[in-house]
């Protein structure tokens, strides 16, 4: 399930000196729908290698970010702008963790 992916990455691949922890993510009090959209934003990245249709990926990424922003605005009231900003600031570190996780999985396939 997508909503578990981000939390799993934080538990399985802790980075030394990482500023992002499961507790910090939980403190944002995201709904299951918000966490699912956030996870999709983390996973859909136009800067991945091997992408053949960059414009389509960028368009999908933009739609996901807009949907996440709208949902956060709807659910978090006065704190919505701060919550959305905090989510965006977590993207680079989570994408890095996702890439590390992907590399680990590939190494299992190559070296059983």
TrEMBL record:
Superkingdom of origin: Eukaryota
Residue span(s) of domain NR LBD: 1-112
Keywords: DNA-binding, Metal-binding, Nucleus, Receptor, Signal, Transcription, Transcription regulation, Zinc, Zinc-finger
Transmembrane regions: none
GO BP terms in the entry: cell differentiation; hormone-mediated signaling pathway; negative regulation of transcription by RNA polymerase II; positive regulation of transcription by RNA polymerase II
PROSITE patterns from the UniProt entry: NR_LBD (PS51843)
A GO molecular function held by the record: zinc ion binding
Signal peptide interval: 1-17
Keyword Acetylation among UniProt keywords: no
Name of the protein in question: NR LBD domain-containing protein
Native source organism of the sequence: Neolamprologus brichardi (Fairy cichlid)
Organism ancestry: Eukaryota, Metazoa, Chordata, Craniata, Vertebrata
